[in-house]
Amino acid sequence: MLQGGAIEALIEDRVDFSAVFQGWSEIAARLSGTELRLFPYVDFIPEIVYPDVVFIARSEMIEQQPDVLARALRALGEAYTFAAENPDQAADILISEVTDLQQSEPLVRESAQYRAAQYLNEDGVWGCVQTSHFAGIGGLLERSGVLLDEDGQVVTAPEFSVYATNELLPDC
Length: 172
Hints:
Blueprint: H1 6-11, H2 25-32, H3 41-44, H4 59-64, H5 66-85, H6 87-97, H7 105-116, H8 135-144
């Protein structure tokens, strides 16, 4: 088991609650015999929809070297597609390359199976985002009053969808 994770902190009574990653922490808890009471955020804040993994690049990089980013995204897409189509082999590779995970082989294998179904969209394509999904995050942050300017004054949320693009993903 990995050290210092949410499940370990819960088991050791170091925390009363934590956000958990369903594709890992929830599985780890079940495999260790720890019962969790889960409260998925979407049950309480349905307007927030966001991808699990977001790749971020500086504006300068996007403007000056889009070909480099496109190649990197293509490679990531190939890896995620492989993992989606071959979760057992993906788990084998991860276990062989990250030796600390050898002691957590059942967790790695179950997580690979769980996540495989989530890597590709309904068209079998990796990486495409719906920019409208980011609007809910801005609304929540704004209503919560956590967006502040340099003087500590609450500000309006920016339009987060302008910060997301599928331009470098040819299949989106």
